UniProtKB/TrEMBL annotation:
Coiled coil: none annotated. SMART domains: Iso_dh (SM01329). SUPFAM superfamilies: Isocitrate/Isopropylmalate dehydrogenase-like (SSF53659). Belongs to the isocitrate and isopropylmalate dehydrogenases family. PROSITE patterns: IDH_IMDH (PS00470). Residues 5-331 form the Isopropylmalate dehydrogenase-like domain. GO terms for molecular function: isocitrate dehydrogenase (NAD+) activity; magnesium ion binding; NAD binding. The lineage of its organism: Bacteria, Pseudomonadati, Pseudomonadota, Gammaproteobacteria, Alteromonadales. It is an enzyme of class 1 (oxidoreductase). This is Isocitrate dehydrogenase. Pfam families: Iso_dh. Signal peptide: none annotated.
Length: 335
């Protein structure tokens, strides 16, 4: 059997610390991966003169599976979001953001288990038609939704629901106002829902969805939506379980996938052994599930759950007084 090679992008700020933690845990659980390390973000800009070097793109293309820490895109004109560039380059059309409650996080809710499936390449994040008038008084951008794009992301959501034994898919839209773009998305969602009679299908306007997630989040199971709405809603969902430090993300295409921590690079605590590595550890769990290694994924998730629930060597954001290495060791001890 050929050894699985993984491209690893440690990223900026706290990225190296938390990715190293995830790699130790993957080794402990018995994953015999070979790793190819690559640069992106500010580290790449410093080492190679560009945010996303060609050698990094080549490794992502070659290995098909990537584990990635947080990246920093410099603020200002001339710098395109690295994450958006990667999604478009490798046509990773599905962004999958699960949130799961862990006792001990002091989150506002218990028993949350929601997956947001976000279209990843179209809509307002496509970067099309961005124009600012010469006098700086007017700006515009173009949002494009295609039938093909809507069909594949909505189908992805239903297939995920069926595969994971989930019962309900909610299509979130703004078709009452955005009658063309959101209207097409909603029309396609209704068509595809008819093909999955075993799964409950609902639809909800995005502003109401935000309110309902705050008031009664347990009514949601799988949410499928467009790019901009998905970006906002998935962060809202992370807030239900303790914040972005508890939320992983996967970008999945036809034959390429990147699994990542979804929070920022937190340069203010970089190198101080303070960061909570949970997000990227859970991203590695998503990666194992993608590679059909569910038994190892479950072992890591359960060990992580025990550490957070017990409060054993947890980080400050989880109410503890320990750092990244102590927290990681607590997970390793349970494995």
């Amino acid at each position: 059997m050929t050894q699985q090679r993984i491209t690893v992008i440690k990223g900026d700020g706290i990225g190296p610390d938390i990715v190293d933690a995830a790699l130790l845990i993957l080794e402990k659980v018995g994953c015999d991966f070979a790793y190819d390390f690559a640069d992106a973000g500010l580290v790449a800009l410093e080492n190679h003169g560009e945010l996303l070097p060609q050698q990094t793109l080549d490794l992502i293309e070659k290995n098909k599976v990537t584990l990635k820490g947080p990246l920093t895109t410099p603020v200002g004109e001339g710098f395109t979001s690295i994450n958006v560039s990667l999604r478009k380059k490798f046509q990773m059309y599905a962004n999958v953001r699960p949130v799961l409650s862990f006792k001990g996080t002091k989150a506002r809710y218990e028993d949350i288990d929601i997956v947001t499936v976000r279209e990843n390449t179209e809509g307002m994040y496509s970067g099309l038609g961005q124009v600012v008038s010469d006098d700086g008084t007017e700006a515009e951008a173009k949002s494009i939704i295609t039938r093909q794009g809507a069909e594949r992301i909505i189908t992805f959501a239903y297939e995920l629901a069926r595969r994971e034994g989930r019962k309900k898919v909610t299509a979130v839209h703004k078709a009452n106002i955005l009658k063309s773009t959101s209207g097409l998305f909603l029309k396609v969602a209704r068509e595809i829902a008819d093909k999955y009679p075993d799964i409950e299908s609902t639809e909800m306007i995005v502003d109401n969805a935000c309110m309902q997630l705050v008031m009664n989040p347990h009514q949601f199971d799988v949410i499928v939506t467009t790019n901009l709405f998905g970006d906002i809603l998935s962060d809202l969902c992370a807030g239900l379980v303790g914040g972005l430090g508890m939320a992983p993300g996967a970008n999945i295409g036809k034959d390429c996938a990147i699994f990542e921590a979804v929070h920022g690079s937190a340069p203010d605590i970089a190198g101080k052994n303070l960061a909570n590595p949970t997000s990227v550890i859970l991203a590695s769990v998503q990666m194992l599930e993608y590679l059909k290694m569910a038994d190892k994924a479950d072992k890591i998730r359960n060990a992580l759950k025990e550490v957070i629930e017990s409060g054993d060597r947890t980080t400050r954001d989880l109410g503890g007084q320990h750092g990244t290495t102590d927290f990681t060791q607590a997970v390793l001890d349970r494995l």
